[in-house]
Amino acid sequence: MKNNARQINNNQGSYLSVVGDTYRIVIPGKQTNSEFAMIDMLVPPGGGPGPHAHASFHESFYVVEGEVEFKTEEGKSIARKGDVVTIPKGGAIHAFKNASNEMAHLLCTVIPAGLDAFFEEIDTPVKEGEFLPHPHLDEDTIKKFRAIANKYGQEVYPPDYLDK
Questions:
Q1: How many domains does the chain have?
Q2: Contact status, residue 82 vs residue 63, Cβ threshold 8 Å
Q3: Domain with 108 in it: what CATH number?
Q4: Distance CA 143, CA 64 (A)
Q5: In this structure, are residues 86 and 59 in contact, taking their beta carbons and an 8 Å threshold?
Q6: Neighbours of 158 (CB within 10 A)
Q7: Which of 19, 121, 142, 150 is 20 to 30 A removed from 4 (C-alpha atoms)?
């Protein structure tokens, strides 16, 4: 089987609402033999995922636009346009939040793939440019979310876990 180069146009891929953000799965793991996945993330002001960890893959974020506050157990930092943040394999607990009043735009690459499949299972398909409100996370929803996260090698922590 021959490996061919492939171009992905800026509107290709599936769009998903993830905790009130809109993510586009640009390159799913099913197209890369699960070697990697690429996810284009639009994060409205105040948006972003809570504390979580995934020991089995490396995650890198390139900030295309905006300001994003990243938190880990080591502290917090602000990443701005052109900055790169890496979360190495091994399960570093992390979270990020759009710290500005403008839309933040991130490009996330995960090696190996898996985060893309997790998003596809837990979240709601949307149209390009569509944003759903942050979902209400009642106890049953949190249990379901944690069970699916565990299936994909992720651990979810309480929202205030990194606020020490």
A1: 1
A2: yes
A3: 2.60.120.10
A4: 33
A5: yes
A6: 10
A7: 121
Q: Dump pLDDT digits (tens) for 102-153.
A: 999 999 999 999 999 988 888 788 988 888 887 776 778 778 888 888 898 8
- Would you say residue 163 lies in a domain? no
Per the model's pLDDT, the better-predicted residue between 13 and 46 turns out to be: 46
For residue 100, being part of any structural domain is answered with: yes
Residue pair 17/132 in contact by the 8 Å Cβ criterion: yes
In this structure, the number of other CB atoms found within 10 A of the CB of residue 101 comes to 10
Domain housing 30: 14-156
**Short-list 139, 102, 114, 111, CA closest to 30:** 114
Helix (H) or strand (E) holding 22: strand 21-27
Is residue 2, in this structure, part of any structural domain at all?
no
Q: Is residue 116 part of a domain?
A: yes
If residue 122 lies in a helix (H) or strand (E), which one and from where to where? helix 115-122
- Is pTM beyond 0.85? Reply is yes
